[in-house]
């Protein structure tokens, strides 16, 4: 059959196939779904961060116009615990008892005929608390701390001895403020029960997990739960759990025996769907004066909610980022009275990358070496932990191409050496080695008598372009035009898929689609195996190719026929095939499966008197393996770069002394505005990966990781000031 | 939810009569303040909204060639394009264009801008118990909060809520006057007297009585030889309130300052006229040393917290930067 690499469709900057629907309002997001007789829910949240509910008075709410019920810990039925997932246990159910573990914990849900009635009545619920002193702040000595909470600590070589023997002994501490994902689409759940089965429209990046969670919690077989999320208004990791508000909406619908819709408010988005945790990192590095990195010791502490779990693998990328002979990592997780954090784009990597790439910049100045040269000298030619060759690694090309496009070679090394009037100008860079992650995925592909194909998979398109790349890939594999491929996603009844997260869906899904397409072609050949009127009679898969909607002999394109002719002649409406790919590396694999790599370059302007920082240029060169669609891939990377600007300069979720988030609106929590974003330069380098399906490496997150350090390094180059605490607000530079 | 009556009268007298007759009524102008606080945050309660959007209070006129009269319902976007504002009041234009977003400036009115409520998240979150502005006598939660976007001048432990208007900063510097109409007739209030320092009653923010509305703002034009500038400093490049801002209009003759008008934003519980600094600059050479001394005077006796302490230095530097720019342009 057609080799994937020979096609013309893959990689083309095809417009999003769902673009027209989206811009014309035709794409239904979870909050767009409505049913006749649907009721509306509004949350009541705790106004203290720790303690117990002393009394809860719902009388005023219950008599308010339109109110149907108020659900609290006093009348909520006992529910089973949610399942363990591949990113940790399910969130704690907040109405299990009267305990308060964080400010903003849901304490009641009011259900009424209209959203306005529900919201109004929610303000009438009177809650009194016996308040306890909350435990807040990542360094709080009262916080219970887990050691090696993810089981991911690693060690090779004698790190302490190597550090002690090093000419250059680097030892610094970094702090990063908590951040909040803030997808534009407010998270919503619409639940409808019918005959013991429930259909749930939920803002999820992972329909299969949502189905499993709801089934487990409500004691149902998974077949009795259907989760639909064909479109999602952004996630950035917030949709990787089935959050308590979703469980409450499903519960309310069951209790009322009516469909229920619950849409979070923007302030509730800050307390209900996770955030990037606050973190502190200590990084010790030993180096020689000629720029050889000998050892690294990376310790990181992140926060979690009390009685909750979150995986924030900050140190994970460090051992394999450079060719250091000795490396050790230490992970800590401090439990606080805060809403549980969750994944936020490049969880762990983004924090670790900031510390690591800032540290390399500092070391380059201590030994008087160009920061890029220091990275080249310590480039990991093979995978450092295993000594195996990488399945692909174009990081050197990232450095080279990025530096050329940015004009790095013209940069004077001395800090404060560039100036434009009152503005100090600085340039900095960072490298990125991103981890590979993928899980088992299934897909179904069919072709009907119109010669068009349908691809079906439970995975979601969270705005990244999954619909489009899936159509391109299927078109390529079946010899069709993109317009001849329809794609159905975001439905848990469809073939199982992992989350749209961890930069893993494109990799997993492309493997499944490739397998399904191959099986489908095999099914067509099986159909004509004994068909005297078919030029493909008795042929096997490796003897044929597909082009122009036809299967034909690879060595004689004139000998073949189209899909419709085969189906017609055999009285078939369609042929359907399933595909599955387990992308896990097998035992004894002779290469190390690689994730994406990148080099990122920033230029900033810092107002010498006023401390204002503006990013004037930002460039990324990315090795993401095979790029399936140059346009959506670029959009992924520039979106990630904007997130990196926010992380570096603006974003901070401010907890006050009472554990309340003091800036839980988009007016107060600053994300980059257009004026903060310069022209963003993105170049893709490298080629198909040797191990991953279709040669793909995920690129959903890599574009964030180096940006904060590149900007902080540029601020240092501009001002001579090293800022190890994000965000770099102007007061830090006064 | 509570029933809300909405009316949209055509005349000023009718609008005033509607609000005056109903203790639960409020005027609705551009909408940002009133609708956010009422519907989204639930921190104010009105039973009637009197939409004044149709009243004939838009546009500008020039009185005796010396005073620009601005209708209270003129939008920020329109005022920024006004030819007199462009030519004679460049720092008013700069302040307008530095405020809000394009979408908001197309809707927001000048009267509404003057009467915008503070963005203090302790005031705007009804679940916070301590807020003297919302519930007098309950204390101030913001003073133990992150308090980055809060005031350091005219502030004390009872209230640090910031008056966030950009436009008001040059307007107080210019001695603008507010024309007010109410059930008792018309009156004129200097903008510097229009706002009330929080003191012991942070809930009282201005001198308007119930049923009184701003109909016009009169802005005396500075001398033709005056140069002016508004500089707004913030972390985000656009669509953020000022951490500090400065408005200055200078008349410099032969290197000597003949007249100075100065005001600060982002630091005061009210738009902050820097009167003492103006006095210090009048008649002295336009030098950086003088500017710095004046800036120190302008920031005298601040009430700072860990989160706002940086604003003392930032506001001084902002004012000095504006003055130096103006002096440079004059030389």
Automatic annotation (TrEMBL), chain A:
Name of the protein described by the UniProt record: Acylaldehyde oxidase
Organism field: Streptomyces sulfonofaciens
Superkingdom assignment: Bacteria
SUPFAM superfamilies: CO dehydrogenase molybdoprotein N-domain-like, Molybdenum cofactor-binding domain
Coiled coil spans: none
Key words, A-Z: Molybdenum, Oxidoreductase
A GO molecular-function annotation: iron ion binding
Gene3D superfamilies listed in its UniProt record: Aldehyde oxidase/xanthine dehydrogenase, a/b hammerhead (3.90.1170.50), Aldehyde oxidase/xanthine dehydrogenase, molybdopterin binding domain (3.30.365.10)
Domain Aldehyde oxidase/xanthine dehydrogenase a/b hammerhead residues, every copy: 24-133
The UniProt record lists the keyword ATP-binding: no
SMART domains (UniProt xref): Ald_Xan_dh_C
Alphabetized PANTHER family for the sequence: ALDEHYDE OXIDASE 1-RELATED, XANTHINE DEHYDROGENASE
Automatic annotation (TrEMBL), chain B:
InterPro entries to which the protein is assigned, alphabetical: CO_DH_flav_C, CO_DH_flav_C_dom_sf, Diverse_Substr_Oxidored, FAD-bd_PCMH, FAD-bd_PCMH-like_sf, FAD-bd_PCMH_sub1, FAD-bd_PCMH_sub2, Mopterin_DH_FAD-bd
Name under which the protein is recorded: FAD-binding molybdopterin dehydrogenase
PANTHER family found in the cross-reference section: OXIDOREDUCTASE, XANTHINE DEHYDROGENASE SUBUNIT C-RELATED
Superkingdom, natural source: Bacteria
Keyword Oxidoreductase: yes
MF (Gene Ontology): FAD binding; oxidoreductase activity
Pfam families linked to this entry: CO_deh_flav_C, FAD_binding_5
Stored SUPFAM superfamilies: CO dehydrogenase flavoprotein C-terminal domain-like, FAD-binding/transporter-associated domain-like
Naturally occurring in which organism (per UniProt): Streptomyces sulfonofaciens
Domain FAD-binding PCMH-type: 1-224
Keyword Oxidoreductase: yes
UniProtKB keywords: Oxidoreductase
